[in-house]
User: Fold this.
Amino acid sequence: MANAERPAARLRHVMVLLLVLPMLWAAYAYRLKVEIDAMEGHAQQRLALLSASLDAALLRFESLPVVLAQHPQLKSLLLEPVDGARIDRTNRLLESVNDRTGASVLYLIGPDGNTLAASNWRRPESFVGENYAFRPYFQQAIDGGVGQFFAVGATTRVPGFFIAHPVRDGGRVLGVIVVKIELDPIENTWADGGESVLVVDRHGVVALSSVAAWRFSALAPLEERSREILAQTRQYYTAALAPLPLEWLDERRLGLSGREFLAVARPLPWADWEMLMLNDTAPARGAAWSTVVAVGLVLSVLLVAALYLKLRARRLRERLAEQGVLERTVAERTADLADSNARLTREIAERVGAEQKLRGAQRALIEADRLAALGQMAAGVAHELNQPLAALRTFAGNGLVLLERNRTEALRENLQQMIGLVERMARLTSQLKVFASRRQSAGGQASAWAATQVVAGWLAERLERAGIVLAFLGEDCAFPLQPQALEQVLSNLVGNAADALEGRADGRIQVRTASRDGRVWLAVEDNGPGIDPAVRDRILQPFFSTKPLGHGLGLGLPIVSDLVGGSGGRLEVDAGEGGGTVVRMSWEAAMPQREEVDDE
Assistant:
């Protein structure tokens, strides 16, 4: 009898093992997929933030060569490139602009590719006299376009992003003005964050990376055509461009340096780049194995419990063989236990389903809120631009009629109206650009009185037409902002105050300064109708405005809040003692330290 039971016991053990192993493997695979998916979602979010920061670093200097190309000093030197006095003045001009903007290097190139002037003309590695005709950014700009190119500096061997713009004299291109932007601070930030980030160009070469050893390597062996192009442009100078020892395991995973990574990519079309983030899958596999251990422990407990119940049932059957009443009692209790277990299983399933529905509703709510914000912004921008565009079309038609009738005075007024509409559209788009770029406002020192005089000059015609008096009261304090940032703050606040005083005969705007309690204070007050307390907590939100649709995007106060907060200041909006509105800002009185500019 005992010998006959042993094969049956072995068969049961094998069947249990065949049931348990698939369960453990399913638990491992499911948990690994959940962890990998979560890791991929987090990586996508991080890539969106990192690409946005890279965009902001480059867009900060995008318009600098465009503006400098209009400077008469550059055209003068390009027309007479051998004049030593003009070369000296242009060197000093570029040096001054470079110091104020924080760019790496600014330099002017003649039509033959020789550098005529540069902001680093005092340094041993000066660009003056170097020829960059082989660079694609020069070739694109000399042909009349805008050149953009990432490369290792041919003179300094320091990599950077180059933006070039043609300098014109009428329809003729005289030369090229170039700004170089070094991206080492961004790479250092990635490295400090402990993330494995790569930016790969169209040839598959790693241009930027948080891991220094990966920089200027290739994801795969380079084709001969790619090597010829890179050698011709000297994009990476003498780097070997050796392929990294990586192996793709599937569409999402790769092996590198003995480790497995999840690779998540995001295209950067403006530079023909692709940003990749590599996440070590070891934590995900560790979590999956932890799940296997937990499931194994649960199954072990259930198995022990099952064996215990089986043994107990056997003993009960032996004891109650002659006691039918007790057998019925045991059967009833066993049935109750089964019912309770079924009810508990149903409750667990219902709670799991409710939790999944709740998570889905939360995701839908977040997506709806995001779409609502985008819709609000798109509607405001479309309305603000469509109105002046329609007016421009009407004025253009009127201009043709006036030109045919030779009514020059009326045509002049018509053109002035069109200029005003273009300036209005420029203000709207500049507000969007300032809000999107989150440009740095700290690191300088600005005079409140000087900034007020600049803003008064900008708004003089508008204030005079509305009969509004703008006054400066208090001492001339220095505030820890860049001069352009302080002018932007005062321009937005004085402009908002002028809007509030529209149609008021005794309009008055006061700019007050004070220094007390270890802080410097700046306030802009008006005697307008004030702000409704019900909306006062929302006026710093982007795209919220109390003005009628068509009178602004609602970005003025959010821009002021960003500039003040970015420089370490505090901002509050309150009602004035005699009515109207007062916007107060304050900073610590400590003098800011001057930031040094890295050379190429």
